[in-house]
Amino acid sequence: MQDPKCPFFHKPNPDVDPKKDFPDSSKCGGCATQHIEYELQLENKKKKLSDITGFNDIQVFSDDPWNYRNRMDMVFTRDGLGFREKGRWWKTVAVGECVISNSRLNELKREVEDFFGPEFDFFHVKERVGTLKYAVIRTPQNDSCISIVLNKESENLDKVVAEVKKFAEKTTANNVLITYIKAKSSQSIGEDYEIVKGTDMVHETICAKVLHYSPQGFFQNNSVMAEKMHEYTRQLLSDRRPNGGPDGEKLYAHLLDLYGGVGAFGIVNADLFHKVTSVEDFEACTVAAKENMKRNDIENMEAICMDAKRLKQVNLPEKNLYVITDPPRVGMHEETIIQLRKLKPKLIIYISCNVDQLAKDLPKFKDYKIKSAAVFDLFPQTNHMESVIELVPKIG
Q: N or C: which end of the chain has fewer CB within 10 A?
């Protein structure tokens, strides 16, 4: 065990029932494992993936365990920006420098706090009154965005909107949005927003590809580790892809990118394949994927807006199919897995952010075996991780 780096870290106490007693009040509910030495954190994650897969030869990839996050959804309080208390969603604790956020994010956090002092109208989650709810700060490489989230039902809405516009003139953030959320909603992102400064897109560079995405959508929160995961995945595809020959197998290899988002995996690996098909059910992401394809001069890729469970409606080849699937935490729909098994891909790379759901999905691929497995620690100081599982057909 070690001393937590953050003074607001809630260190678990096995002798206390959190439902009855709160001796550690005013403790942040964000991180979960700061009291555990980082090497042991990695070992624990490796062991968990090994336990659920039965596969022992697991690679572990990591980087700086601090100052890594490029996105934070922070709660407005009278004492500054912060998070929910551990075990008490209705309580908030303001934090100083967030030790897992990158330096640029902490800079913008201070700018928000310096402008929106204690005299402002902050939202009270229990009473559901007040205006300022969240500040969603995103700081990918070479870009930045702050979304000020307001209670759209507040009586003071117009007044606070005017103040946010003044803030936009002072902040060093490239982009500033105002997002409007109902009082009852705990969401910090939404489709009801306006652009106050810059644009409603931010960009990240992955494997020399520039990818634009909406601050209201999903993108990996750890830039360095996201790139490492993309490099690793690209190497798997490159190693397993047909190596050519008189039948021209390599030329006609096809990549299916399931849950493709803004097209990242498809775009990064398009040069390895004759054709790439990206399937994503969120329309805004599909639109962004098409723009990203143009931006990176990708001509052999299509982006389809469709729920992955309708995969049988997509025209895919009967052979030389390779698949990357990167589902949300709920995993893959049963119909999607059934269709994939019918398609019989030569390779399936399953990328999972939820190892418990991964444990439920993997046994359904009965005709496949694990060729390799890796842990990518995109979330140090927490129990979360990304897992990359390489599945190949069983022989015989």
A: C
Q: Is residue 307 part of a domain?
A: yes
Q: What is the DSSP string of 160-185?
A: HHHHHHHHHHH---SEEEEEEE-TT-
pLDDT in tens, 44-102: 999 999 999 999 999 999 999 999 999 999 999 999 999 998 888 888 999 989 999 99
Burial track 176-204 (b if 16+ CB lie within 10 A, e otherwise) = bbbbbbebeeeebbeeebeebbbeebbbb
Specify the amino acid at residue 46. Answer: K
Which domain range does residue 78 map to?
A: 71-201
- Determine how β-strand 80-85 pairs with β-strand 71-77: antiparallel
Q: Do β-strands 88-94 and 80-85 pair in parallel, antiparallel, or remain unpaired?
A: antiparallel
**Considering the entire predicted model, what is its pTM?**
0.92
Residue 256: both structure tokens together: 């299916």
Q: Helix crossing, 157-170 with 103-115: angle to 10°?
A: 130
Inside any domain, residue 91? yes
